[in-house]
């Protein structure tokens, strides 16, 4: 006997997991996260280099300093905020010091502790570059549409779970 719903269901998988994209495997989700990060990073880095003579890492360091109390932060605080090693943040700060965008200062209470402080030129450069960065990121992330809040919340949970515990 032929059931009417069989004709409608012909060729449609019964298991949602068999539908590509319906229930992605962890490897697929990981690939998409890496691709999105790499592609957005490349696009934003290229735009910042072209228009402001800054790498994305340099821009992020300047922005973190601009948002820090007194526009200064320790190398450890910058490394943590940027997700860089101490050597990586030192290299970035060295370039910014050479360009006159940042100064190095010793902490008053502990002369061993080194801080980076934004200069007036650094403040001007980060202010100019912020529009380019923010507009391009907003344009690219607008592709999330109504899912933006859901994706942001989900990624925040994963980020929190993956955070290095000290």
TrEMBL record:
One of its GO terms (molecular function) is DNA binding. It comes from Blastococcus tunisiensis. Residues 1-22 are annotated as: Disordered. Keywords: DNA-binding. This is DNA-binding transcriptional regulator, MarR family. Residues 26-160 form the HTH marR-type domain. GO terms for biological process: response to stress. It comes from the Bacteria. It holds the Pfam family MarR_2.
């Amino acid at each position: 006997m032929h059931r009417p719903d069989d004709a409608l269901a012909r060729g449609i998988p019964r298991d949602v997991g068999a539908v590509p994209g319906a229930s992605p495997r962890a490897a697929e989700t990981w690939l998409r996260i890496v691709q999105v990060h790499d592609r957005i990073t490349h696009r934003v880095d290229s735009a910042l280099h072209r228009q402001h003579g800054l790498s994305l890492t340099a821009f992020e360091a300047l922005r973190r300093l601009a948002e820090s109390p007194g526009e200064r932060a320790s190398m450890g605080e910058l490394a943590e905020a940027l997700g860089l090693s101490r050597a990586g943040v030192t290299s970035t700060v060295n370039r910014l010091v050479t360009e006159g965008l940042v100064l190095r200062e010793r902490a008053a209470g502990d002369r061993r502790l080194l801080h980076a402080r934004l200069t007036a030129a650094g403040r001007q450069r980060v202010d100019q570059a912020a529009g380019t960065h923010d507009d391009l990121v907003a344009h690219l992330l607008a592709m999330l549409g109504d899912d933006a809040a859901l994706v942001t919340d989900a990624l925040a949970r994963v980020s929190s779970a993956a955070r290095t515990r000290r």
